[in-house]
Write a structure and sequence with these properties.
Elements lengths: L3 H12 L7 H13 L3 E7 L5 E6 L2 H13 L3 H8 L3 E5 L8 H11 L2 E8 L7 E7 L9 H15 L14 H20 L3 H14 L4 H9 L10
Antiparallel strand pairs: 1-2, 1-5, 3-4, 4-5
Helix pairs in contact: 1-2, 1-6, 2-6, 3-5, 6-8, 7-8, 7-9, 8-9
Amino acid sequence: MTDRSAILAKLARLAAVNADRHLADRLCEAGRLILGADGVWITVRHASALHLPLSATDDTASALEDLQDVLGEGPCRTALRDGSQVTAVVEDGTDARWPEFGRAAWHRVGPLTIHAFPMRPSAEAFGVFALYLRPSTVFVEAGETAQLLADTIGAALLREPVPKLEAGPVRGMWSARAEVHQATGMVIAQLRIPPEDALALLRAHAYAHDTTLGEIAHQVVTRQLDFRGDS
């Protein structure tokens, strides 16, 4: 069974590296390292129904997404449409599900296996977290872990502005927001990352543990939770 706390702690630590890079790039690379994949990419669906690539760890990942965009078919499109994991083996043959993509991918990048996971922090998938493995690469983590990462990264990328506090005493909801603000500052100090990224990681942690942002913030403020992995 997936150890959610261990995976999330590792994701937070890895995402804190190279804080000058975009959060999507850091989450992409963190997912690749955790899963032991050769490459990873993230694509989201825009309101206009366009598929927008947010990040890719390497040229092969970029090429695989580009082919699907050009051809309008492929495992990522199916995963997003159906809201479920899709696996595709790129080989010297035709996959009836995506005949054009299979042929083009074989000629462009050669043999590999693609795993596409819908990012679904809410009821409807809004993007895809995909990875590829060369024939000699062993998938070191189970699909359950990859789906957890996909959903958690999706939650992290659904950003909102960093909360700003009003002057004077705060109560009720504002009190909870004050604690989120304080927790955000603590995560910034722990990981040395921008405020927006700190809040994104708080939200991802809350999603993965099926709890509220306020509860995770309270755990950080009361030092029950430390994103450096010390708790």
